[in-house]
Amino acid sequence: MEAMRAIMAGGGTGGHVIPAIAIARELQTLYQAEILFIGTQRGIENRLVPQAGFELRHVEVGALKNVSAATRARTFLNLPGAVAAAWKIVRSFHPDVMIGVGGYASGPAMLAAWLRRVPILAFEPNVVPGFANRAVSRLVSAAAVQFEESRRYFRNPRVTGIPVRPEFFRVPQKVLGSSPTLLVFGGSQGAHAINHAVTSALPSLRRELPRLRIIHQTGERDYRETKAAYVSAGLPAEVSAFIDDMPKAFAQADLLLCRSGASTVAEIMAAGKPVVLVPFPQAADDHQKRNAEVLAKQGAAVLIPESELTAEKLTASVSELLAQPEKLARMSQAARSLAHTGAAGEIAGMAAELAGIKAEAAKSSATVQD
Fold it and tell me: Which letter does DSSP use for residue 97 in this model?
């Protein structure tokens, strides 16, 4: 049997690229697929995709969301060229299926695939689809989404969740002790608003929760200032610019305080951690707020808009939650109930179905090759 051929289209941020790599690896493992990535020259895919051992080709396309009118106009003018470049890549690679993962390159690539009648699977991790996925939502053959609320945007949608490292599913349930631990983070770059609110709240947190311990990922920009604030406040803390082992940090925490990007939300659900979510207000289409609202509605999170994130409100919310072990346990259970195991394999299976490849045939082919 000839090997399955699949294109992973999109990128820009880790939230797009990391799940795409996980899906690509499942396609290789389950279906012996040949994989090609399409991205732009400025996205994080230029580092992560070659590191993962996959070939990456580029198309030139600009931004359309949260940019000036001039930038938007240039992007529209250059869009036909981006679609033409993607069309040539699709023609030369002859994919059986394309998986669009969102980001700048995914729109032109998926449109090119549609023009060449290649089946398209859209992957959407946020409640409200990004611009690229919305633009081609009626052209795709099927969609893999994280939230039930996202199904209405696509043809043939399936709630699969998004790929999450297995270590997050193995984070043990934590029993609140006499020295509660708060984990604060804002992604790899940190979140200045969260960092500022926490350091402003340190005196009141120490007064209300004298045995509180904090693990705080600040990002490089705010590290020194944040570290100095903890020393001045005399509050026990592990402060670092970046946390390498986030599942370990999750395991130590009784409560999280963080943003609500799609990957972060998926990790929270997999680990079953109670959380205070502060959505990034400049996120495209306000998708972080929509993600946070889903968890809050299910009783898995407390949502604080960044505009309301004062030292007083932060102290009150953290103190109230850590004073109620039963509520933390209910939040944890609610978060775990939203999690999806095996998302990468399920999404790979959907892609294989669109490509006309049955799992049984793929397995028998692998047996012959062995």
Answer: E
